[in-house]
């Protein structure tokens, strides 16, 4: 198994995504919801709040939550959100149907995130990523939001760099976000042993491409989501089949 050959293919695909022209990002598949999330100029807080919600549910469900709030409120300005009490947000999150698998916990995280945006960033959370900051600083700032761990913090920073074309002074602190798809693909490609820890996967990606380990994140995630599925992998359709040890075994 040639790790370098495998990583070169993933890096090449990652570079093509990183170098592509800025395009409308389809987070949810709903045009109105995605329009809100793509509006970093006027609604940067929508993107950040969606990141805060992205835990223990399908990404599309989490990323719909800002738009669901907008529908209920008729507005999603930061001034409107700041005026809401913790009880207001809990009611919006839970009624008439819960917007998240853990509505009470996530309503508190949503509320605390709004308070952080208000007090720390003077209601303009885009201050996190303006003026080409170091990637480590951006990841650190995302980690200050209640409920956000390294996986979501690096994911958010990676989306800003790759999809929104936000410039940073470096990219080496943007790690791969080791979700279930990435763990499965790294294992099947033979890059890590079965049952490898999240930390092992992160450090393997750092070893393969120290300058920007997160560059491989979306290519690997797409492979897991589209072809390298848990029960019925479509190896014949995957562009990694020629170098994948699991494909050769099957």
Structure description:
With 250 residues, the protein is mainly alpha-helical. It folds into two domains: 3-20 and 172-249, Helix-hairpin-Helix base-excision DNA repair enzymes (C-terminal) (Endonuclease Iii, domain 2, Orthogonal Bundle); 31-128. Helix content is 57%, strand content 0%. The protein has 13 helices and no strands. It has helices at 3-19, 31-38, 40-53, 59-73, 78-82, 86-94, 103-120, 135-143, 150-162, 180-188, 198-208, 217-226, 245-249. Helix 8 crosses helix 9 and helix 10 packs across helix 12. The two termini are 16 Å apart. The mean pLDDT is 96.
List keywords for this structure.
250 residues, Endonuclease Iii, domain 2, 57% helix
List strands and helices in order, with pairings.
Layout: H1 3-19, H2 31-38, H3 40-53, H4 59-73, H5 78-82, H6 86-94, H7 103-120, H8 135-143, H9 150-162, H10 180-188, H11 198-208, H12 217-226, H13 245-249
- The N- to C-terminal Cα distance equals 16 Å
Count of DSSP strands = 0
Whole-number tally of structural domains: 2
Number of helices: 13
Q: Name the overall outline.
A: globular
Order of helices and strands: HHHHHHHHHHHHH
Helix content: 55-70%
Instruction: Give the biggest sheet.
Output: none
Runs in which pLDDT lies below 50 for 5 or more consecutive residues are none
Radius of gyration (CA) equals 19 Å
Structural category is: mainly alpha
Mean pLDDT: 96
Strand portion: under 5%
Short description:
The protein is mainly alpha-helical.
């Amino acid at each position: 198994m040639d790790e370098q050959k495998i990583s070169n293919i993933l890096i090449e695909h990652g570079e093509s995504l990183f170098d592509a022209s800025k395009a409308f990002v389809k987070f949810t598949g709903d045009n109105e919801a995605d329009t809100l999330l793509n509006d970093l100029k006027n609604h940067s807080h929508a993107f950040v709040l969606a990141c805060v919600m992205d835990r223990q549910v399908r990404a599309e469900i989490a990323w719909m939550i800002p738009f669901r709030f907008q529908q209920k409120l008729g507005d999603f300005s930061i001034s409107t959100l700041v005026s809401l009490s913790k009880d207001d947000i809990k009611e919006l999150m839970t009624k008439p149907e819960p917007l998240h698998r853990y509505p009470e916990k996530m309503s508190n995280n949503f509320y605390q995130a709004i308070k952080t945006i208000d007090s720390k960033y003077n209601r303009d959370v885009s201050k996190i990523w303006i003026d080409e900051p170091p990637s480590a600083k951006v990841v650190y700032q995302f980690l200050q939001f209640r409920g956000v761990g390294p996986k979501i913090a690096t994911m958010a920073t990676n989306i800003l760099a790759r999809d929104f074309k936000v410039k940073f002074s470096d990219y080496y602190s943007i790690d791969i976000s080791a979700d279930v798809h990435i763990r499965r693909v790294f294992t099947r490609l033979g890059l890590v042993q079965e049952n490898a820890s999240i930390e092992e996967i992160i450090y393997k990606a750092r070893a393969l491409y120290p300058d920007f380990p997160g560059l491989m994140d979306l290519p690997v995630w797409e492979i897991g989501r589209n072809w390298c599925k848990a029960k019925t992998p479509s190896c014949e359709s995957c562009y990694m089949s020629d170098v994948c040890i699991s494909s050769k075994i099957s």
